[in-house]
Input
Amino acid sequence: KSAWWTGKINFEGEGFFNVEKGSDFTVKSANGTTTVLGTSFNIKSRWEDYVVYCKTGLVRVSNARGSVLLKPNELAVSMINTAPAKSIVKDEERFTGWMDSKFSFTASPMRLVLKELELQYGVQFKVTDKSIGKMSYSGYFDNVNDVDTVLNIIGQSMRLRFVKTGKQIYSVSQ
Output
């Protein structure tokens, strides 16, 4: 959906913004602030992550620890208590694919992968061993609407068992 905002908004979650050239626009999240002038960009502000991808124009990403200026195809990432770090993006879809039900994880902590799956599929996970949350996961899902298919893929690659224990509840074990 399209919406018109001017000035400044408070935002948590993930969203893609297309700001009309010549308009000042600021997005403020608990983990950082993004200021733009005529650009399109994606923000993901969830849990301890703050990730901003600049598609067009210029974007300034800042928090209490520092700031960076992004040009097209650049990315800023910051975690709680870290300054934003800038890098070049070779695969835009990794950051904007969520709009087309495409999800990409690269060396992501399993606890954050499970949180993302809970959010996207309306399920809940009960993890039996805290070490599972610290496991690192990399994977890509393209238009998979069935959570059981996703869990089967993750389970096979990570040697995890997902057992449905309720209507939308899964236990996770090794």
